[in-house]
Design brief:
By secondary structure, the chain is an alpha+beta fold. The protein is built from five helices and three strands; from the N terminus they run H-H-H-H-E-E-E-H. A hairpin with a 5-residue loop joins strand 2 and strand 3. The protein is elongated.
């Protein structure tokens, strides 16, 4: 292998028994502190927050070094996405009467259907999945996918097929 990597045998054996440098030892110590803070924060803290925590503990460390040590060991913070409002409650349309009145137990098939719209993130963007479910046995009666939230593309398109 030394021949393949163009390294002398004596250099390889010297490398095997060498003692770590002060910087390596410090980075190992820092990495243990980073891991402790990372897991203590339930994997939510990224390199800037961890660097601040380390500074508060009295260690002089940069965000770049913390980022480098975290990246080296595949520690990534959990990023919470911003909440996106998708419902417009202040519309001018008539509100339909609630016939179920939150009574979702049904004793006969095909007496109560409910429609639900779910957003699905794909590589090309967001899609709207519209589905109709029978409340008796919770089976999906039908579904449709659309690129927009317009009723003609979601609910009405689905009801045409039923």
């Amino acid at each position: 292998m030394c021949f393949v990597f163009k390294v002398s045998k004596s250099g390889y054996y010297k490398w095997l028994v060498r003692t770590p440098s002060k910087r390596e030892l410090y980075n190992l110590f820092l990495f243990e502190e980073i891991k402790r803070i990372y897991y203590q924060s339930k994997r939510r803290y990224g390199s800037p927050r961890i660097a601040k925590e380390l500074e508060m503990l009295g260690y002089k460390v940069s965000k770049q070094l913390v980022r480098k040590l975290m990246k080296k060991s595949n520690l990534q913070s959990i990023v919470k996405r911003k909440f996106k409002i998708t419902t417009n409650s202040s519309h001018k349309y008539a509100v339909v009467e609630n016939k179920l009145n939150r009574e979702f137990t049904v004793i006969k098939e095909n007496t109560a259907w409910v429609l639900d719209i779910t957003y699905i993130s794909t590589g090309q963007g967001w899609l709207c999945l519209t589905s109709v479910i029978d409340l008796f046995d919770r089976k999906v009666i039908g579904w449709s996918l659309s690129n927009t939230m317009r009723a003609k593309d979601t609910s009405l398109q689905l009801l045409k097929w039923l």
